[in-house]
Write a structure and sequence with these properties.
Strand content: 15-25%
Shape: elongated
Number of strands: 16
Distance between the termini: 47 Å
Number of domains: 2
Radius of gyration: 28 Å
Length: 454
């Protein structure tokens, strides 16, 4: 008999985990609503052509493709054999696959806006909390199925949106109790660096290499740049750029000295200065300028964000940025946007490590009514329904049984209170309530149960 198992990188979630995850979801969702965002959901499956070419060469390799139904046996059909050979070579072939699981929430959102832009009120502010899938190598903090929580504003060029999203990040992580460093950069500055080091076509090579800096170190980043055809003087400029340090003001001065002669660089620096000044004047927590931040995705065009938990060895727990023509990928140009994403699974791991979940997050059922006979259980059920009507979460044990069995059930489910109605309580119209945490017990009239503090 086959032993049941899960595919690598996928997980089951029991009640305790689900409650903790819901605590994160609800905290973030409430703030999304507070900031004026409205909910949206898109399907798990998108057309493959919707996703490919949007995440860079590295990202495209991680898209989970779905085989078409009714595939022909490649051993019996030349057309099917050629299609399978194309897939093995890393190419897409509509004979084999036309659909894929969504890689993130941003591209499906752009597709949605492109399809419905005539009916939307701009600026359109939406949030999504849904799972996404990546054919990545599983490791700590990296899974093949995971949730993202995104908030985006489209139809506005105002940098006020970047300030608001930065503020939302600060408030959300403060509410979760996680000390974080919110880092920002600007893709225009990276584009200026590319222009300075070989031209605009070098942009993706530079951002992909820089994006790996934390994982592989400067020496290997330089090796990657050599493989991509960069000259020694260009690599020296990139290294100088990556070694910029100091306060936000000092970093901006250094990057001005390096790239201030290039128009795109000047514009990107100006956008960062605007955001930092706005934050200062509004008494908001200041983001930290980090020129090593690249976010190697094709669609970012302006400010980019990344959030890391302080004092924890973990990748980013949030990120995003501006994409001023994302819907142009779907034939609807000139709809600018900016958005951020929360990495819920990594946030969960951080909160577990730092023991940040509140004690009452585990509480499901608040009171268990013992089942001590037919007449007693009917009486208990009637009282239980009255409590449920007031929002008290309670249940009646499924069968008449021994006390110790019902107590063990309550303990395993972390139920704090048990309500006991035996023959004596039934005759006297009372009930005995025991607090399993403190051991305290009292008998009250059944008519007073709605006033009891469960």
């Amino acid at each position: 008999m086959m032993k049941p198992s899960l595919p690598q990188g996928f997980r089951d979630f029991g009640a305790e985990t689900v409650r903790k995850r819901n605590f994160i979801f609800n905290t973030i969702r409430n703030l999304f609503e507070l900031y004026g965002f409205q909910p949206l959901e898109t399907p798990a499956v998108e057309n493959l052509e919707t996703l490919t070419g949007k995440y860079g060469e590295e990202g495209d390799k991680l898209i989970f493709k779905i085989l078409n139904n009714g595939l022909n046996d490649p051993r019996k059909s030349d057309k099917a054999r050629i299609a399978f050979e194309n897939i093995l070579l890393g190419k897409n072939d509509k004979e084999i696959t036309e659909r894929a699981l969504k890689y993130d929430l941003t591209i499906p959102f752009a597709r949605y806006v492109a399809m419905h832009h005539g009916q939307l009120a701009f600026p359109f502010k939406r949030y999504q909390i849904q799972p996404v899938w990546r054919a990545d190598r599983p490791q700590r903090g990296r899974y093949r199925e995971f949730f993202q929580c995104d908030a985006d504003v489209v139809g506005s060029l105002s940098l006020q949106n970047e300030v608001e999203l930065s503020s939302l990040y600060s408030q959300a992580f403060a509410a979760l109790g996680i000390p974080v460093d919110i880092r920002i950069n600007n893709r225009k500055i990276l584009a200026a660096l590319a222009e300075f080091c070989g031209g605009p076509t070098k942009m993706m090579d530079i951002t992909i290499a820089i994006d790996k800096l934390d994982n592989i170190g400067m020496a290997q980043v330089k090796e990657e740049l050599v493989k991509k055809g960069f000259h020694a003087n260009e690599i020296s400029i990139i290294e100088k750029y990556l070694h910029i340090k100091g306060s936000n003001e000092e970093k901006l001065q250094q990057v001005k000295a390096l790239l201030g002669s290039i128009d795109l660089g000047i514009k990107g620096i100006g956008e960062l200065e605007y955001i930092l000044k706005y934050q200062q004047q509004a008494a908001l927590p200041a983001a930290s300028v980090d020129f090593t931040l690249a976010r190697g995705l094709n669609y970012y065009t302006g400010t980019i964000f990344e959030v890391k938990a302080k004092g924890i060895q973990m990748g980013s727990i949030g990120g995003g940025g501006r994409y001023d023509d994302l819907t142009g990928l779907f034939g609807v140009p000139n709809i600018p946007g900016v958005g951020i994403s929360f990495g819920v699974d990594r946030i969960y791991d951080v909160m577990e490590e730092l023991k940040l979940f509140p004690d009452d997050v585990h509480i499901g059922t608040q009171a268990l009514f013992f089942n001590l006979g037919e007449a007693e259980s009917r009486n208990a059920f009637s009282l239980m329904q009255k409590l449920r009507a007031t929002g008290i979460r309670c249940e009646l044990f499924h069968e008449s049984g021994r006390f110790d069995k019902q107590f063990k059930y309550a303990e395993k489910k972390n139920i704090q209170f048990v309500v006991i109605i035996g023959s004596k309580e039934l005759n006297e119209e009372t009930c005995t309530i025991r607090n399993l945490l403190t051991g305290e017990q009292e008998t009250i009239p059944q008519s007073a149960i709605l006033q009891f503090r469960f």
